[in-house]
Amino acid sequence: MKRAVYPGSFDPVTYGHIDIIRRAAAMFDEVTIAILDNRAKTPLFSVDERVKMLRKVSEDIPNVRVDSFSGLLIDYAATIDVHVAVRGLRAVTDFEYELQIAQTNRLISGGNLDTIFLTTSLEYAYLNSSAVREIASFGGDISKCVPPFVERMVHEKFQAVEARERK
Ligand code: PNS
């Protein structure tokens, strides 16, 4: 059985991520979406919220499962016995960072974790989660970037943040 892990922050999940999930699921027997629980950063969405989000966007793809991890990706991949990580490459600007992570992971895992790259479909090449957060924080339109239910969740989140700041 060919299995892969698709790690990321997914804060929030975008159409670009969904494109990679679908294409990876067509190539592997099982894909685990692994959401990074990074305690050093304050994400917009909690890990539980992101798990729910990712479960919903992948509910129609039977060979996709959703999980979260903290610490090193190579350690998490070893616990689920997966040896291939999938990452999306949007543009050449992603390349150096991704190459560095992929090579480091291969080195420190003793060759146990390889990374394959899927080039993002052109219509999603410009998308990234931090731009989505920034646009939404100023009340901008993110409907071309994320599915409608994620759009609602993002706007609700910023409304809650604003309400808290007003108090
Ligand atoms: O969606 P992102 O934020 O670009 O994803 C980055 C991610 C989660 C793939 C990467 O930061 C990661 O794997 N972090 C876990 C810690 C780790 O293994 N670091 C070693 C890589 S050099």
What does this structure look like?
The chain has one domain: Rossmann fold (3-Layer(aba) Sandwich). The chain is built from 6 helices and 5 strands, in the order E-H-E-H-E-H-E-H-E-H-H. It has helices at 15-27, 47-57, 73-79, 92-108, 129-137, 148-166, and strands at residues 3-8, 30-36, 64-69, 84-89, 114-119. The longest helix has 19 residues, at 148-166. It starts with a strand and ends with a helix.
Short descriptors:
about 170 residues, alpha/beta, three-stranded parallel sheet, two-stranded parallel sheet, 6 helices, about 45% helix, globular, binds 4'-phosphopantetheine
At the first level of CATH, the class is Alpha Beta
Secondary-structure element pattern, one letter each: EHEHEHEHEHH
CATH architecture: 3-Layer(aba) Sandwich
Ligands bound, unique:
4'-phosphopantetheine
Q: What is the fold-level CATH name, i.e. the topology?
A: Rossmann fold
In short:
This protein has 167 residues and is α/β, with parallel strands linked by helices.
Secondary structure layout:
Layout: E1 3-8, H1 15-27, E2 30-36, H2 47-57, E3 64-69, H3 73-79, E4 84-89, H4 92-108, E5 114-119, H5 129-137, H6 148-166
Parallel strand pairs: 1-2, 2-3, 4-5
